[in-house]
Amino acid sequence: MLMPLTHGAHSVTAVTLDINSNTSNYNILTAATAAGYSAADDTTAIIVNIASGVSVTASGAPAIRTGALNAASNLTINLASGASVCGANGAQGSNGGTNTAGGAGGNGTAAILFEISSGTGTYKVVNNGSHIGGGSAGGGGAGGAGSAGARLTDYGSGKGGGCDVPNVYGSAGSSGSAGSSGTSCRAESGTAGTAGTGGGYPSGSCSISVGAGSGGAGGSAGSPGKAVDFGGLTVTTSGTGTYYGATS
Asked: How many CA atoms lie within 13 A of 118 on its CB side?
């Protein structure tokens, strides 16, 4: 919606975008364009108002991203009482198979991401809502168990005895434990997975015929997302609401 604003003798307009119901993966450029804004040649200010109690969430992306707005357009994002903006949590790392490492946990996404190239406008986030929180990191996957080692079969010391096939196997190791993900919308770090233990050999004096696996390493945890990712711009953050995660 284009709202007229008066500054002295000059009348200009601002694109006002009202988010009045819960939504996900909100793109300011897309919404402003639908309201008549043209990023190529339009320096109109943009105001985003998130209504009381409304939640803006994310799936695999920032909850709110600016898109490539005109570099000279001012942008203000307002959160009313009880509103929240939450980045997406990183995925849990996959558990390793036999002798393989666990997968790394995924990174959380920013709650609000500025993407304005060489921006010269004034940029503000006014959080009078409940909270703005980056997505928390995913935990690392468990390291896989080590495979069992083997010795040749011991046929004794009599005639025809000695060590020969088939192989006799020991015990496989144990898988490690998966790491933990952080709490949703709190920009928390996850924990790494633990390594699996190595496999063992059977008792006996015959030579080792199959080496035991050492077990896989635990996967590393991901990194949490920012509450507000400035994207290299100067952004002012204020308000009475809580910011979970970095604002930078």
From this structure: 0
CA 65-71-75 angle, 5° bins: 50
Yes or no: say if 202 and 151 are a contact pair by the CB < 8 Å rule.
Answer: yes
C-alpha torsion 21→22→24→30, nearest 10? 10
Three-state SS at 232: coil
Domain ranges of the chain: 2-94+106-139+222-244
Q: Using CA of residue 218, residue 219, residue 223, residue 224, what is the dihedral sign?
A: negative
pTM for this model (two decimals):
0.88
151 and 204 Cβ atoms separated by less than 8 Å: yes
| 14 to 1, 48, 110, 133, 234: CA distances (angstroms) | 8, 10, 26, 27, 21
- Residue by residue, pLDDT tens for the chain (248 residues) are 444 433 333 334 899 999 999 999 999 999 999 999 999 999 999 999 999 999 999 999 999 999 999 999 999 999 999 999 999 999 999 999 999 999 999 999 999 999 999 999 999 999 999 999 999 999 999 999 999 999 999 998 877 789 999 999 999 999 999 999 999 999 999 999 999 999 999 999 999 999 999 999 999 999 999 999 999 999 999 999 999 999 99
Cα 65 to Cα 69: distance, rounded to the nearest angstrom: 10
Query: Which amino acid does the sequence have at 36?
Result: G
